[in-house]
Amino acid sequence: MILQAAVTGSLTVLLVSLIIGTIAIYAGARLIIDADTGIARAAVTALLGALAWALVSFFVGWIPFLGPLLTLVAWVGVINWQYPGSWTTAAGIGLIAWLVSVAVLVGLSSLGIIGVEALGVPT
Question: 123 near 20, Cβ under 8 Å?
């Protein structure tokens, strides 16, 4: 019973995080690239970005300053790989995505719906 609750809770956090990350990355791409790049691409980017963040963080995240920097570069690298433009474009999409996700999470948190933990976009 406890394991089932833990799995259900983890899947719920993953799903909510993916939805928020998708919305945030989609908004960032629409604002920076100014083209309809598709919600499916944003969802794939959010999922791959979260995986890249988790993997790099696991292996080098413990290194002061360098670990978090490499983790962020990996996440922006996924955005750069998924969307047209330069690393600067990808960083702009990432910044907008971060701002949107923080705004959504703060709003949902203030309504008591969820906490401010999201994995689709680093917070």
Answer: no
Whether the model pTM is above 0.90: no
* Domain residue extents for the chain: 2-110
Torsions phi, psi for 70 (to 5 deg): -65, -35
In angstroms, the CA 67 to CA 88 distance is 21
Please compute the mean of the pLDDT values over residues 3-12 and round it to a whole number. 73
Residue listed under structure tokens 């999470």: 105
Helices (H), the chain: 2-33, 39-60, 66-82, 87-110
Residues 116, 105 contacting (CB under 8 angstroms): yes
3-state secondary structure of 61: coil
